[in-house]
User: Fold this.
Amino acid sequence: MNDAVNIRIAGFGGQGVMMAGQILAYAATSEDLNGLWSPSYGPETRGGTANCAVIVSKKPINSPVFLKSHHLLAFNYPSLIKFMDRVKQGGFILYNNSLVSETVLVEGVEVIGVPINDIALELGSIQVINMVMLGAYLEKSKIFEDSTIHKVLAYVLGERKAHMVELNVKAIEAGRDFIRKQGLIHA
Amino acid sequence: MPKVLMKGNEAIGLAAVLGGCDAFYGYPITPQNEIPEYLSKYMIEHNKVFVQAESEVAAINMVYGAAGAGKRVMTSSSSPGIALKQEGISYITGAELPCLIVSVMRGGPGLGGIQPSQADYYQATRGGGNGDYHVIVFAPETIQETIDIIKESFDIADYYRNPVMVLVDGLLGQMMESVDLNKPIKKRFLPPKDWATNGMKNHSGRNVVSSLNIDPQKLENHNLKLQAKYQNVIKNETRFECINMEKAEYVIVAYGTMSRIVRSALEVLKEKGINVGLIRPISLWPFPKEAFKQIPSNIKGILCTEMSLGQMLDDVLIANNGKHPVGFFGRTGGMIPEVEEVVRAIERFQETVVK
Amino acid sequence: MAVKYQKSAGLTDNALTYCPGCTHGIVHKLVGECLVELGLLPDTIGIASVGCSVFSYDFFNCDMQQAPHGRACAVATGIKRVLPDNIIFTYQGDGDLASIGIAETIHAANRGENITVIFVNNAIYGMTGGQMAPTSLIGQKTTTSPFGRVLQQHGSPIKVSEMFATIDGVAYLERVTVTTPKHIRNAKKAIKKAFQYQQEKRGFTMVEILSTCPVNWGIKPVDSLKWLEEHMIPVFPLKLFKDTGEFHE
Assistant:
């Protein structure tokens, strides 16, 4: 891992964008790194635009805001268009190509479509698209071990939603799997 | 103790409890709602007091009452709500009562917006209440520093019998960071609260909490006593941090979220071959004038940066006393500047100073 | 020689600052006596408000706080919540309670705060020099209603007790006056009951006391008592508005 990684996660309100970001910040904290999560909501919480910024850093974090991120996870078309030019050279974008049909090219940035809606529906729950995206991201970035993420998931879901852990773990694995297979195709 | 990830507003609530908070009185307002929400559960579960008042005005007066009764009490609010509390704050300082006020700033004036801002520097350090009074104001830059300062705030308030305000912007309230809740705080000798109105069975004679002094000579004497106290606060509680001052060509002054953005900008500027220092006031009142003594005499200028259109700038101009050229950069209304904007601000400032 | 009458130990030795003929002094005495007779002085914290009774923190012989204008019930709430076993009362006039402080008072009542409010209604702002109060009567001339209170312009006198009678958190509410020895005895009973109910932690208690202001009314003290009975009582009838009844453990 670099000394610091900036991640932007964006989509519609209700797509689980905020939670995906928080899991990364919790994971950083759990591995004794510095994690920072900051939210930005559009005028409407549900259905409007929502995005969050996550910083994972070995050193204390200075600016909580950043213009360009290393990584962008775009859950819908408006988010992709809004933030695709704000990814650093050498970084990558994962976008939801269940909802975005066009092919996107950004110079110096790797762009990968992940059909998170389709994968989530195959698992039987559209609600876990955020976990599919998170899985894809974890596989692509190699930022955290699965054991850390599982621990964080159990904490974030709490006792009340403990029964949801299994489905979420499955969704993360499905996201990872998609990236793994993609690697094979390219190879 | 390992670190935990906490939202700023929830950390404020928990830190207050760790600092010995007995009672919270508040009124909902964005972007600080997680403070009362967190405490509405925690305080009741721990047999402490939580009251959602009918207004900010009522809340600060409940604080006044409970502080007078000798308890450790707090309120929290955001910009328009803090405006409503000014009357009570003036009374609390006049009656010499300790309390904690947390102000989570949003854009103004008026109803303004709900995004982060630093446009309440005047409100915090000058206040809108009547009379010759001061509130001790701390402006932390991280959630960790917010926790550490809040844990100490009740001690400071009790020691001086004066309100302490912790001033953060909405970003610090809304974001989450890895924090250690168990950092030790400075131990202070705290005199017993023998002045508290907790019933005559608990002390000899009658205790009266009041800010009324109808005799002008008595009121002047009271104010002189307050001033002497404020001088002690200035002497003992002024806090600041100086960064990269030794070879600085320019010095930026910034607090809170803005100082973190500036820290990142200093790194970019260094790569560009421009050496810039940072004065970070931690106490806004008392304003750290002595930090300006650490500025090298050959610097080319001071740039004050704020998430407002220039409020701390007044204190910077006073502290600088005409010695160096002073410039200003700020965003307002809830706009958070990017690191790159601060870099450009220094570059532009460089051009004006050289001309 | 046997002592037939003496100043209540519930009051300090400070000389009252009220104008001659004003009935605040009687109300102070009754409150002081009730606190003494119930043995509550060592536990009591009183809240002085803004208005003529602003100096009452000098007169009641217990711990006292002086509250900002209208905020007495908020201050009382603050104290009561951290000291639930102490006795907390506010002493407020009609400007303080019914005008600037109506929100604080209503919400304290609605939360059922276990405090006692002594509400002195004399239909005028006394301390500031005789301005119109929310309780001033229709036609009543004051320094800010020189042509008399006009319904269409100023509204009608606000009936605080009638309004508070509708609030569930109120445990005891009575309107009394102090114009005659009989009325004074009734007023004392009401005040005592209010404090007893607070001791029993039954909720919000308030006694509205119709009072005179000879100086600002421009009427001699004795005539003021008569004016109160003839003009105020028809608008503000003496009445027990709410009593949650005898207490049973």
Observations:
- Residues 123 and 136 of chain C are 4 Å apart (CA to CA).
- The first strand of chain C starts at residue 44 and ends at 48.
- Chain C has nine helices and seven strands.
- The beta strands of chain C are 44-48, 63-66, 87-93, 116-121, 170-177, 204-210, 239-243.
